Amino acid sequence: MDPTCWRLTLTLVVVMSSTYDTEASVSRHMDDFIAAVKQLEDGVPGADPVAVLQRLRWAAGLRDPFIQHFLGDVDSSGFEMDTRLLDYIRKTVPYRVTDDAREEGVVLTSDGTSVALRPLLLGIEAGFLSKRSERVRGLYQLTLARDLGRSLRHSSPLSQRLGPDGCWDSLTSPHVFTLSDTPTLLTTAHVNGGMDGVILGMEARTVRLSSLLTEYYCHQLDREGLDAAPRLISRRRRGNFRELLVPPTLVRHVMKSVELQRRLERKSKMELKERKQLTAAVKEGMKEFVHMFVDCPPIIPRCMWGAEPYRGTPTNLSLPLSFMYIHHTHSPGLPCLTFQQCSADMRSMQRFHQVDRGWDDIGYSFVAGSDGHIYLGRGWHWRGAHTLGHNSIGFGVSFIGDYASSLPSQHSMGLVRDQLASCAVGGGRLKANFTLQGHRQVVNTSCPGDAFYKEITSWEHFGEVKKN
Asked: What residues contact residue 99 under an 8 Å CB cut-off, 6+ apart?
């Protein structure tokens, strides 16, 4: 069994023997959900994935007319399910955001990201049914399009319509997920679930659902990191979705979803003027959606890696900036390949910077792990402590590991060079013509022949090339 999913060997007993007296007692980890799916499969020997997905949909109460339009109703005759398993599914799958900013129906995955189960499961079911009929029907509507339509048609600023991310009460036993900012109609976890639903729906194949989810969410990287990893894993979510996404097509799906919802609610058709206005709003909003969830890399929030609070009052940066300075940590000296190890490295660096050096916080703006994620340090708005004499004019980004005689993985370098830099320019944090430059900061890595330094200096003026 993959060590990343060690929880699966034990949680099946723990999850299914719990009485679930309160909502908070239900485990919200993907490993636990996969264990529940496996129990459901074992109770229906020989059932194909569609039958299992239909039972999950029935147990979760996902019966609204929009879903049934694409997937049909579920014939529940003959369905038998352990009452504790049924209770678990009913408390884990249905999606909503509460008035106190708790996001329900989402689970924590082993790679450190959070995923909404509802769009994930609906997308996979739509994909399997589409393979049967050789026609993709409802895949985008059930995963992203309907909720994009609800989000983008509102007049509030785009920043209040997409995102935010959030944090769990516990990473070892997650129960409550709280959003970090004003709740929106399309959160980061909801988008993650939608993207995964599209990806796995397009890749649907005849394997047990539990096996499909395990392969996707529980793959353990070897020392080559993502450079040698399979294509179909959750750490590659944004890259895989980028290959599938055609923004004008998704815009059409959004508009069709709005029109279908109106018909199901027995509302009149949109007037031509209203339709044109909504189409324009969706097209404009789609640009922000693509920027946030396709162009930008996945960024792990501070609360997820266990950051201590900033000491004192941060100094705000005056954006946009002209430089992005690239470092490697030297210590920790090894690449981190898991969310757990990268998080531990982040905490170690923060302790060193705050306690040993007396700084207010970890010095870097962002840190790149070899697990496929960027980790949030001081971020886009707070001045860092990374490049002496240049902290107010540029961001500091460091790769975890000592690269005096070797280079980070190609995927990690691309994550910074392509996605983080593009994200900064597109978000107005870096000038269109900026310099992305390597920086030598400690004795052990100050040799002009340093392979890492030579590689990074070849990125100079990358921002200008990228923009043009």
From this structure: none
- Residue pLDDT, tens place only, 220-253: 999 889 999 999 999 999 999 999 999 999 999 9
265-293: b (≥16 Cβ within 10 Å) or e: eeeeebeeeeeeebbeebeebbebbbbbb
Instruction: Sort strands 166-168 and 114-116 into parallel, antiparallel or unpaired.
Output: unpaired
Q: Please, what's the largest Cα pairwise distance for the chain?
A: 73
Low-confidence spans in the chain with pLDDT less than 50: 1-4, 6, 8-24, 441-449, 460-468
* C-alpha span between 172 and 339 (Å, rounded): 12
pLDDT at residue 146 in the model: 95
Tokens 């496929």 correspond to what residue? 372
Q: Which residues pair with 114 in a beta bridge?
A: 108
**Given the DSSP bridges, would you call strands 114-116 and 106-108 parallel, antiparallel or unpaired?**
antiparallel
**Interior/surface letters 69-84, b for 16+ CB within 10 angstroms, e for the rest:** bbbeebeeeeeebeeb
Residue 247 CA to residue 290 CA, distance in Å, equals: 8
From the number of C-beta atoms within 10 Å of its C-beta (0-12, 13-18, 19+), residue 135 rates as: exposed
**Full-model pTM:** 0.91
Tens digit of each residue's pLDDT (9 = 90 or more) over 289-306: 999 999 999 999 999 999
